[in-house]
Structure formats: structure tokens, C-alpha cells
Write a structure and sequence with these properties.
Blueprint: H1 8-29, H2 33-53, H3 57-81, H4 83-86, H5 96-113, H6 136-142
Helix pairs in contact: 1-2, 2-3
Length: about 150
């Protein structure tokens, strides 16, 4: 089915082009980090659409999973590290002392009940074998000779 001289592939190409360019302009002009990352996701989604049009579904899937997934992680870190940019109120929790009072003794009890087989032991001494011919230069270079 064609619309005049336009094929569905040409219409999809135009849509993805507008999506990519609009997303790029949104990234550059937006001062809010989270919104800029959302625009970047839209732009990268348009690139994945290009890959679909080129009959490269694997590259489209990689584009979506790797790059857009990485932007999701970026948004998570942006929210965690720059709360002032998102205008989110700071959590005000005055019960930190109660959490410490519960976590401290609980941690000590768990450490005391840990079986000794799980605790760290010093490694057994390993019997050394004579050095291989390949190792001889390093042995001679690393030995401490007086003088």
C-alpha cells in the first residue's frame, strides 16, 4: 500500500527522523537532567527504529536493551545524586536511632550464629616446586642481591 509516492518504509523513516532530531533538540535545550535523559531515550529509540528499517533486528534489540537500559540507570543515579535538580523533597526520617538500635544487635546475633566453616581461615601453606624455565628470569630479577 502506498500513499502517493510514499511507501510505508518512507513514512516510518520520516517518523524516526523526526523522533531522533526532536529528541536531540530536547536533550540540548533542557536544563533538567531527568528530562534530558528521557529525550535521549526517545532519540535512541528512533535509532533502533532505523535498525528495524534496515532489517537488523539484533542491532535494534541491542540498541534498546543496552543504550536505553543504560539511560534508565543514568536516570536512577541522577535522581539519587541530584535531588535538588528534580525538586523532590528530602526524606526527613527522625527514626534513624531506632533503626540503629535494631540493626546493631541483630547484626551481632547473626555474626555469632555464623558457622565456623563460613568464617575466613588462613590459607594452608603451599609446597613450592622448583621454578619452570620460563619463570627463571623473573626469579633472578626479583631476588635481592646485596651490593
Amino acid at each position: 500500500m502506498t500513499f502517493g509516492n510514499l511507501t510505508p518504509e518512507a513514512i516510518a523513516f520520516g517518523f524516526f527522523t523526526i523522533l531522533i532530531l526532536g529528541g536531540a533538540i530536547g536533550v540540548v535545550t533542557n536544563r533538567n537532567l531527568v528530562r534530558a535523559a528521557m529525550w535521549l531515550m526517545a532519540s535512541l529509540f528512533g535509532v533502533a527504529g532505523y535498525f528495524v528499517l534496515l532489517s537488523a533486528p539484533f542491532l535494534a534489540a541491542v540498541q534498546i536493551l543496552v543504550y536505553i537500559g543504560a539511560i534508565g540507570i543514568l536516570i536512577t543515579f541522577a535522581v539519587m545524586l541530584t535531588r535538588s535538580m528534580t525538586h523532590m523533597p528530602e526524606p526527613n526520617n527522625r527514626q534513624w536511632w531506632a533503626a540503629g538500635a535494631v540493626a546493631g544487635p541483630t547484626g551481632r546475633r547473626l555474626a555469632a550464629k555464623t558457622p565456623t566453616s563460613c568464617r575466613r581461615r588462613s590459607p594452608k601453606p603451599v609446597k613450592s616446586s622448583p621454578p619452570l624455565p620460563v619463570e627463571l628470569p623473573s626469579v633472578s630479577l626479583s631476588s635481592n642481591h646485596p651490593g
